[in-house]
Amino acid sequence: xxxxxxxxxxxxxxxxxxxxxxxxxxxxxxxxxxxxxxxxxxxxxxxxxxxxxxxxxxxxxxxxxxxxxxxxxxxxxxxxxxxxxxxxxxxxxxxxxxxxxxxxxxxxxxxxxxxxxxxxxxxxxxxxxxxxxxxxxxxxxxxxxxxxxxxxxxxxxxxxxxxxxxxxxxxxxxxxxxxxxxxxxxxxxxxx
Length: 192
What we know:
Elements: H1 2-29, H2 38-41, E1 50-52, E2 62-67, E3 71-77, E4 87-92, E5 110-116, E6 121-122, E7 125-129, E8 150-159, E9 162-169, E10 175-180, E11 183-189
Antiparallel strand pairs: 1-4, 2-3, 3-11, 4-5, 5-9, 6-7, 8-9, 10-11
Protein name: AMIN-like domain-containing protein
Keywords: Signal
Signal peptide: 1-27
């Protein structure tokens, strides 16, 4: 009888531990993190322009987005790079294509211009695209419908080793830029 009680206590403890870790894992991925408190969402981010001058010879391969409890995320996949990825991210009143200066309309209350120091073509053969973005068009495979902060995406260009994207937002909100492995990540907060 004593062994059964001890075994039951171990199973209850293990179950509680697993439930707790499942909640932590969910917080990193999105849907399960709905229970995070508002105070956990307060970040020390700001809306100032952010940049890093580093450059990589690796090409941009993909752009994806994700919804999180406190922010919306855009990820630039520069597959295979082992160096720092340079960038320039800041708010603009009009999104203008690098090289031509042509205005590209982006929906939303504010526009975040993101320039990644990585081409969306093969540097050895510029005619060979590595990312299918088309100037003035929405980013391929990216749908921001239902996002709390993101409203629109537009590809600007890939010019002189840099790729330019316009991100339409609900309002001018704090953001951060960080690198994780071969990915450049732009997170935009849901609130100020």
